[in-house]
Specification:
single chain, alpha/beta, globular
């Protein structure tokens, strides 16, 4: 439950009123895929090896039918004033960890087929991403091209690659080139990727190291390897997104990478900038080509007037356990109330529209109406009725 994300200082009524009227796009929301997705959609010859899942209908992440029903999803979007969502998988991440590269790729195609069908109901509201298994780069590029033509909005790869094939490796260059040429961002979300198969149970859960530090470390490692491997020099228009890790770590990491580049260089590299293998200070790549997505991040949002106005994006994480649906207005007012209206517009909608929708804002949200099961949701998700500081739906 995300109660700790709210502090005791209620935003002013003026800020709450302003935020409640502002357009918002969630740059990280999730699907609750059918438990038999892969069994139903894989080629017949592979179905006996399909990843299997229990039917989780009614569980926390599956408490809203909008996770799999696009028509119910539209109702839930309207209920909390959401104009559009960038859609990430839940069960679909199993496509990266089957242990068989060919099966991984087939599972990604099956998930993408389902996502294409889902988004086709309301492409102005549903901005899906194409899952890719980047072991066979030629196949991954072809799948990206197929998904782009079908309307998906970016590439999705696991945040934690295999230790022997980190993202600074030239192995991925053809994929990065294709993403750059097609204007498709590379998206990475916490908690996914084949490298996580080697994590001990201790590293998979709990406050430390997975929750409070581990996810950020995963992001820093992936990003650091891309920078030190020269990826952003070779692909100066490539755009990379790190979702749900918050954004407060990003200016600190940029500062630290600059310091270590000048002071120590980067291990195993040599090149033109201060004895390292990259052309510019790492912070320049981070502030120009790297995006962060946060649910609620007081520290990161305090830095927004100086950094991140063009690269930090808000999200609600619907329908996962950490999500702030419904009632996002208070969280936004708390974190972003110090910004100007124009600054908030970028963080809440404009940057996501630029990255995923050719710079066009989606239509304003539909008028909110009744939604199914809201009392049950509030009881189970928030531990009771919504606290009085939360705004459940626009007036």
């Amino acid at each position: 439950m995300p109660y700790p994300r709210l502090n005791e200082q209620r935003p002013s009524e003026a800020v709450l009123t302003a935020v409640a009227r502002e357009q918002r796009v969630s740059a990280d929301s999730h699907m609750a895929e059918p438990h038999d997705l892969f069994v139903q959609r894989l080629p017949q010859a592979l179905r006996d090896r399909a990843p299997q899942f229990p039917d989780r209908t009614g569980s926390r992440a599956y408490g809203r039918a909008g996770g799999w029903d696009p028509y119910e999803r539209l109702k839930d979007q309207a209920y909390d004033q959401i104009s559009a969502e960038v859609l990430y998988p839940t069960l679909g991440t199993a496509a990266w960890v089957t242990g068989d590269p060919a099966l991984d790729a087939a599972c990604c195609r099956a998930y993408n087929d389902w996502m294409i069908d889902f988004c086709s109901v309301a492409p102005h509201r549903f901005w899906g991403l194409a899952m890719l298994a980047p072991w066979d780069i030629d196949g991954a590029v072809l799948e990206l091209e197929r998904c782009r033509h079908a309307g998906l909005r970016g590439a999705l790869v696991g945040l934690v690659p295999p230790d022997n094939l980190l993202y600074g490796n030239p192995h991925y260059d053809r994929l990065w080139a294709a993403c750059q040429d097609m204007g498709m961002s590379v998206n990475m979300h916490i908690g996914g990727g084949p490298g996580r198969l080697g994590f001990s149970p201790l590293k998979r859960s709990g406050i430390m190291p997975d929750g409070a530090a581990g996810h950020k470390w995963d992001c820093m490692k992936a990003l650091g390897n891309m920078i030190s491997g020269g990826v952003f020099d070779r692909f100066p228009k490539l755009q990379v997104v790190f979702a749900e890790a918050g954004v407060g770590w990003m200016p600190f990491f940029a500062q630290e990478m600059d310091y270590y580049q000048v002071t120590y260089g980067m291990p195993g590299s040599s090149g033109p900038h201060e004895g390292t293998g990259v052309m510019r200070p790492p912070s320049e790549y981070i502030y120009n080509q790297v995006y962060g997505v946060f649910i609620s991040d007081t520290v990161g949002c305090k830095a927004l007037p100086e950094v991140g106005l063009d690269t930090f994006m808000w999200c609600n994480d619907y329908p996962h356990g950490a999500c702030i649906w419904p009632g996002a207005t208070n969280f936004i007012a708390q974190d972003l109330g110090h910004l100007t209206v124009e600054q908030r517009a970028k963080v809440l909608a404009g940057t996501a529209a630029r990255l995923y929708n050719n710079g066009e804002l989606p239509p304003l949200p539909d008028p909110p109406g009744a939604v199914e099961g809201i009392d049950t949701w509030n009881s189970e998700h928030w531990g009771g009725t919504l606290p009085p500081t939360l705004v459940a739906a626009p007036a």
